[in-house]
């Protein structure tokens, strides 16, 4: 048992019980994380991260905790805090602190000051690597601790939104160390965004509201990977899916898939359930609230709570009350009630019953994180400052581990086939 | 506020707060129950059930409570208790007791003695009508209160299993009043069983385990209406569905749908998740547990907790522990852990986070219940003792109410079309 | 080689080559008809139809021909003609005539007089059993050959429409021998109607037009079994499905499936492709043509060519021309062109490239026909005059044969399970 | 009417009737090609291709013909021949020759010598631009007419296979002018490959065989865009899809979609239908044929006829015969018959009833071709020799035209939203 400083332990009435509970949650997750399980064996054997200090700002819950522990088992000292004040599980935070190489500063529900204090405390460990879910750690280091940058070999970023903002920063010439865009790998996009966000968002909404999707008009704001997942899984529950988009090729793609594509101005009056996935702000605003049906559900599956404009909604409302745990009803002057789930925050993380992404998809995503961190240690000098795609062979390595763990066999190219693919001399 | 006896009120520390909470739950449900809302208006105006006494044994939660209140608003005196010791919401039970025509005896988690006492207390109201979810009330009256039968105009039964047992009783010549087989209506089977059981079982499993269905082998035991729903919704979440059946036409139907059809002896080794829906016992037994993969999930979506044979499982296990809230892990001698969800009871009702069927499908099902009760009062003499299908026009009436409430318009036959359908003289 | 009268042989330039070609078509079909293959072995061995005369009016093509030959191999004398002047394959008709127990009167494209002459010629064989696809043979016998009725043991009817008309006839007390409603079996409805009509109608339309369904609004007229099949398969090709219905429960079922449900008055302006499946007349009429988009496709998958009102369309049109083989374009005064496929006749039979239902589904359907005919011979006296459902054990027998042929294994009930299902004493 | 040399006119008995028939086919296609229709208006007005000579080797049928005519209407002189000896429609070839700016050398079914003569005849026009479907024209110019390269501004390539080979050529430093990889655009891959190949391959197989996909094991070789389309559409017809792959991420993607993933060695014994889409050779070979079921169907949806190894099959076979038009049966020593569709050539082009890709998807693909050719004329100097992705704005332009033509409206970013997306300063 480590004796390092541990704010969550200070905070908890019965830290020992919390640790056990946190550990039980981590064990459940690990049972369904074959990739991390496999990597742990090699990390424990090879200690590839020996001597590194990793600063993390991620959702502190059971699945992430297994990544944190894997990195620590690989030899690194890890300091972590949450990337969202409401997503921390204190028991998991406590369980992490029990590992001698890990300090978790995350405490659920802290105020802004404590939230940022924790960030600073993490950076005080003098990291050589940053791992982010929303680029908060990269931003803090660049803005307030530029002196650390020289000793940082690189970083890894988990989310679409974070990568988007990192690319903007990079385009401005202000990103001063290499960061792997974990979000942009085929593995991450297809499995985490499509399957993970899709399934968990819908299950969270269903279990928060006790409502069904069959026969409902489900308006999906945005048809990126998350939007595709939400749309596909909602259609798989027999919803009638309506997509809104701003990019014509994505709009066309949704149209060709058989979904209705409408501007939000029209979709607003049709929808029974609205789920935003754009990564942008003001997807649903005042003029939309004004035409919505009584009893609609409003939820956000994008990173920040700006997609559904709650200020507009609050301004329109004559009353608001908790209609159900996790559901705030806004009563309109004409008596309609619009129901906002999880305060418009990322629904599969912020709803009271939310559990985040499914374990298996985080296993894939975190498997890539782990091999990216290993790559930074082993070959960090090969990468210039800026956003980098995850090297193809790392992404492929993780897929191979997963398939082997699931017992899925597949073919390999014969020498003749490889030659055929490489040649261009062959005629018709 | 009524002053009638109310066991749940005795039982609760703060009955007033509970009543408010129960009422809030009922209001949420009613917002999404357009059929009951519509019927309530006519029931309040016409009081069609005036003078009747209705004995109910159903799951006492928010949705059912709106049916109970509708029947009371129609003029009946209603006495109710739970049909499952674990499905009662005490706050809803308390809220029901606030209605002057309603007495609820349901209290969550009571022991067997208290459970059956509550049944007897309900019957002590001298019912003229019974409404069941599993035929417990019909059974009790027939076995222990035969003297009441003469004054009972009839009953209504909600479930597949209950109807099945009533038909057996009827075949034995022992059913002594008419009972509507609400379960067997097209409305009930397609919407409640397929959509309701399907969606809520999967969402409950997902939110109890934090696992995903994508790429999983989901073994569905039984391909009746519930099984079809579970299979369809699981495939809609990108599961690889395996069906087991004993009836060749259903097996063939599943095969033609594109699912794998296997005997359970073979499916046992393939499955990642098992969901039983047969209404029968011993669907999964010792020889199946012996070949299952490590970490499988076992859940039941059929009425009783006999589908997964937990005695067999317990006998095999060297250890068992709560792996997660709502999940009991059974450790096999070879180290495999088999995870049983909600103790093998009806998963969408008995899991700790379970909410039962979605509100909208219960609205349809309870709408039929309500018009069936009305029919018994108005035309009960037309029905002989025995199980009766719900008259077609009642079922149709409820569909019409629902479509109108959803704003769905449809066509009607012209005189010429009606004539065409009726004629057989028309040649090629 | 038989020397009986054979109109198609008279008609053909090279009957021998035609016979070979017809036989090759029959062989291809038989390779994919495991049920008929299996039954043929037992029919040849047992000769259960010895001494019977079977009068048939069915589509004379390769699949039906294998049923005809099976009945003949079972010992019956079979006389057959077409049930649609355009669906006969002359080469198959010729190949059938080569069997000593079979006389086929079917010739493609004959005029009305020759068509009805062929019907009379079939009846002249003094049938003891009739097998129909549209009840033409039953009708002819009742109207013009009542003297034959006493020696007829019964009949079998293939189609929804035929059964509908037989039931009307039965209700009028005019059906004078027993007829099996083959169409109404679960096997027939689910496999033939849903899968057969669904897949073959869409493939025929695709290959007649070279158009795609992805992103198209496909309006399905009617949501019976055929409509469900067309809707499901169209959605499976990424069409946006719109359903029209006159029955509220079916309308609700389509709505809950996630389809748009609209009156045809509104659907008419939305659709890109219209497929009628109602079995009724005037599903699409003048007011609908007036609001349709330029370039729409109109097709019928119901039995008769009355669903799309072509008289109305012709009246509106300023010009019409063959836009493509199998497609007649009707030009509206405003320049829009509405494209009618296969003259509004049953599209999967009447289009120039049409092949009828897929072989495998006809195998199931004809398997039931064959065991129904066997049942009439063996137990015909048990059935009163009127329409009869196919006895459950026959339907089940065919499913068992099919599953065995496909190598699909399934479970059977244990004695304990059977007892459990039969008992009603079991408590909660 | 032009009087230029026209081999197909020489070849045809009645060229005038052929021209009319070809024109009718082109008109049908154009009615469903809104993108080309829209572009034609601007091309006729602006004549952007004036003075260019375009050499094309593509499938000469109605859809392509509308692209050819569009390019000619844009001012170019176009010379074309087929890229496959069997895909030419002589009537369309004749109709094209009627345009004064077009010379078509394509004649169906010519021998190798005539086929290559036609290629040379096209190059003899001294092209400034090449447009290929399989890089034959690029190859011919580079190998035999290097003197033309200096005056060629660039090319465009339609297919996956062609692009693959061009990239190999480029990597070898041997590609001497810029070529747009039309195949690699999102528009082309998603719509043409997924929807086009998927729907048309399955419809062609269904209508060639009269068989159904419901309940069949459909083995899809390769899970690239074409494979995804075939798998998705086959599942949408209720097939049980089995995927084979050599790339672990694609294999995992298919697995997570819910499909079975197997090595071909195992899939071979399971499949009822095999469809290869890999672009590689020897996907199905001797050891696979040896274990296949009796009656299986073998088809290829990849570019060349090397995916199913017919030499191996022929070697194993004791007999072969035409089982049905477009289907060659190979009889194995043990009596099994394996059915090869369309000689293992690209099934949706080479089967006797094949129509190629659906009109609408070719409209999208050819729309990109047209704007790429326009781009080469307008900005060809901006592109170095080598393979180039289609510039994003061209791809987007075509999507916008399509959405406008379909009447699909979508949203646009507000200034605030654009700013939000561009900024990285925003905190949590």
Structure description:
- The structure is a homotetramer of 428-residue chains.
- The first copy, chain A, has 18 helices and 15 strands.
- In chain A, the strands form two sheets. The first copy, chain A, has an eight-stranded mixed beta sheet, with helices on both faces. Chain A has a seven-stranded parallel beta sheet with strand order 3-2-1-4-5-6-15, sandwiched between helices.
- By secondary structure, chain A is α/β, with parallel strands linked by helices.
- Helices cover 46% and strands 15% of the residues of chain A.
- Chain A has two domains: 232 residues, Adenosylhomocysteinase-like (Rossmann fold); 156 residues, Rossmann fold.
- The interface between A and D is large, with 62 and 63 residues.
In short:
Chains A, B, C, D: Pfam families: AdoHcyase (PF05221), AdoHcyase_NAD (PF00670). Four copies of one chain form a homotetramer. Chain A has 428 residues and is an alpha/beta fold.
- Structural class of chain A comes to alpha/beta
| Low-pLDDT windows of residues of chain A | none
Q: Could you describe the largest sheet of chain A, including whether it forms a barrel?
A: 8 strands, mixed
> What is the multimeric organization of the chains shown?
homotetramer
Going by CATH, the homologous superfamily of the largest domain in chain A would be: Adenosylhomocysteinase-like
CATH topology of the largest domain in chain A: Rossmann fold
CATH class of the largest domain in chain A equals Alpha Beta
State the domain count of chain A. 2
Number of β-strand runs of chain A: 15
Please give the radius of gyration of chain A in angstroms: 22 Å
> What's the CATH architecture name of the largest domain in chain A?
3-Layer(aba) Sandwich
**Fraction of helical residues of chain A:** 40-55%
Give the termini distance of chain A in whole angstroms: 69 Å
Shape of chain A: globular
Number of helices of chain A: 18
- Main interface by residue count: A-D, 62 and 63 residues
Widest β-sheet, arrangement of strands of chain A:
9-8-7-10-11-14-13-12
Mean pLDDT of chain A: 93
Percent of residues in beta strands of chain A: 5-15%
